[in-house]
Amino acid sequence: MSSTVEHRCDVLIIGSGAAGLSLALKLAEQFNVIVLSKSTLSEGSTRYAQGGIAAVFDEDDSIESHVLDTLEAGAGLCDEEAVRYTATQAKSCLQWLINFGVPFDQEKDAQGNNRFHLTREGGHSHRRILHAADATGQAVQTTLQEAVQQHPNIHLFERYNAIDLIKHESAKNQCLGAYVWNRKLEHVEVIRSRFTALATGGASKVYQYTSNPDVSSGDGIAMAWRAGCSIANMEFNQFHPTCLFHPEAKNFLISEALRGEGAFLCHADGTKFMHKFDHRGDLAPRDIVARAIDFEMKRLGADCMYLDISHKSTDFIVKHFPNIYSKCRTLGIDITRQPIPVVPAAHYTCGGVKTDFNAKTDIDNLYAIGEVAYTGLHGANRMASNSLLECVVFAHSAAQHIIDNADKAHFEQSIPAWDESQVGNSDEEVVIQHNWHELRLFMWDYVGIVRTTKRLERALRRIELLKLEIHDYYANFRVSNNLLELRNLVAVAELIVLCAMQRKESRGLHYTLDYPDSLENPQVTVIPGRQPNVKLADK
Questions:
Q1: Element (H or E) spanning 485, and its range?
Q2: List of the chain residues with pLDDT < 70
Q3: Is 291 an annotated catalytic residue?
Q4: What per-residue confidence (pLDDT) applies to 93?
């Protein structure tokens, strides 16, 4: 058995986006914190979020309206208490970001005073989206990142993969930290912690076409499931309606805020079509818009649909959407004069690790925050600009719960070293690459925007075969980034399919041709933890 490097901290935060960094900053005055980042600190979904963050700042708006809009977008499956809690906490949490220096756009009111510019997106009945031009996520990420880099109690571990959470027999139902893989040195280390928080983002990399960065491989969801946490509502994967369709535009999102400012979807000849699918037209929620685009593409045999904002003035477009304008120009598309080619792509995981309002999971001292978690906020479909909001709101509640329970978590339990004495180096990485491509392709084809029972059964059969191959590979060879991500994505794919097969209806983001109607009393789909009593310290 090889010796294992061990680190100790009060709080281990796995993930370095808005959720993880917010939690770190809330705790750093009282705790020693380690933030684990799989790539560089900034390379997560937060950085790519364009639209903004929803909160009630306008006097004509109300928390009740925000709640009702979210419930409607969630297609009858939101937890109303969770929605109300989030909407109520929104303004104070946004004020916390403002105090840190996030540069939300401002404008002059009628009296010449500065106020925040509020935009509107699909599903919202009022203008309530605070934004920093069309790069809100980047502004939030940069601001929080600068703050954590300057704090002496926050230690940043970049290029580290979390492998598994650590639970030991003597610890009963407590999380003791995690085994992690140091990508720079290519060996496994232990991080022992009193509290652990998963802030790993979503799992949209399980699909061939996604708006997400490469790191979105469902790591936290898979690790939590293996550790014994319940997972909920994984059948609801949101496909963003409008990703830029261009061979050189990898993962580039066209913000919903364009439609909030008057852009409309159309065919190649300029014919509008959204009015045929929903009374809200181009401002319908994302699930409806994505299915409408998918339907029109298949009906016409078209490679894409189009989003047109060229009827607005050039000054308006360049001011409000400078990054989208600039990116499209580099690809030969002038959005002030021509429509933007768009297609749907996997975008957001509405389900995840089941938590309470303190972000606490089924396992003591283990929390899940942001896209990795299922809080009940999103239901069967996430409303635009509620995602970054959820990150900050539940980071604040988790921080308070950790502070209140600081004297209940200790370091006494022993942790076995990582044993890789029986494994060797892989001589066939092509196996991993092949399985990568196969998984993402059949998930796109069989478990995508429109599903059938037969397609789900086909996907599950292929998942079972991949699980056997990956288990064999994991047991015999040293870990690598691609192997760890593939192992987690196969687990996530299984969870998505199992949840989808349980839901005998169409609702929100889950649409099946075999059950096109919605049930009167829908239930949350819950998959119990896979190995609730297993000593995960054993390799």
A1: helix 481-502
A2: 1-2, 168-172, 411-413, 419-428, 531-539
A3: no
A4: 97
CB 510 within 8 A of CB 381: no
What's CA 190's distance to the chain center, in Å? 26
Question: Which member of 84, 120, 259, 286 is catalytic?
Answer: 286
Owner of token pair 């109303």: 80
Q: Cite the DSSP H helix spans in 74-135.
A: 80-100
Q: 114 and 108 in contact (C-beta within 8 Å)?
A: yes
Token pair for 86: 């989030």
Handedness of CA 393, 399, 405, 408 (dihedral sign): positive
d(Cα 324, Cα 302) in Å, to the nearest integer? 23
Rounded distance between C-alpha atoms, residue 161 and residue 300, angstroms:
44
What is the C-alpha separation between 142 and 148, in angstroms, rounded? 10
Exposed, middle or buried, 139 (CB in 10 Å: 0-12/13-18/19+)?
Answer: buried
65 by Cβ neighbours in 10 Å (0-12 / 13-18 / 19+) ranks as: middle
- d(Cα 534, Cα 40) in Å, to the nearest integer? 32
Residues in the chain, overall count? 539
At residue 155, the pLDDT reads 98
pLDDT for 112 equals 84
The per-residue pLDDT for 27 is 98
Cβ neighbour number for residue 99 with a 10 Å cutoff: 8
Tokens of 484: 């760890």
DSSP 3-state of 283: helix
Distances (CA, A) of 146 to 41, 101, 166, 407, 410: 10, 10, 30, 30, 31
CA atoms within 13 A on the CB side of 18: 31
Whole-angstrom CA distances from 514 to 107, 277, 440, 456, 510 are 50, 20, 23, 11, 12
Query: For residues 5 and 520, what is the distance between their CA atoms, to the nearest angstrom?
Result: 54
Alpha carbons within 13 angstroms on the beta-carbon side of residue 230 total 15
Spatial distance between the Cα atoms of 387 and 140, rounded to a whole number of angstroms: 13
Terminal CA-to-CA distance of the chain, rounded, Å?
Answer: 11
What type of residue sits at position 388? L
pLDDT of residue 171: 55
The residue among 15, 257, 38, 37 whose CA lies nearest residue 135 is 257
Instruction: Mark out the alpha helices in 372-428 (DSSP H runs).
Output: 387-404
- Cα angle for residues 297, 298, 304 (degrees, 5° grid): 20
| Other C-beta atoms lying within 10 Å of the C-beta of residue 46 | 32
Distance CA 220, CA 354 (A): 12
196 contacts 27 by C-beta, under 8 angstroms: no
Separation of CA 146 from chain center:
22
The per-residue pLDDT for 534 is 37
Query: Which contiguous run of DSSP H or E holds residue 439?
Result: helix 429-446
Beta-ladder partners of 70: none
Write down all domains in the chain, each with its CATH number in brackets: 28-188+353-391 (3.50.50.60), 242-343 (3.90.700.10), 429-518 (1.20.58.100)
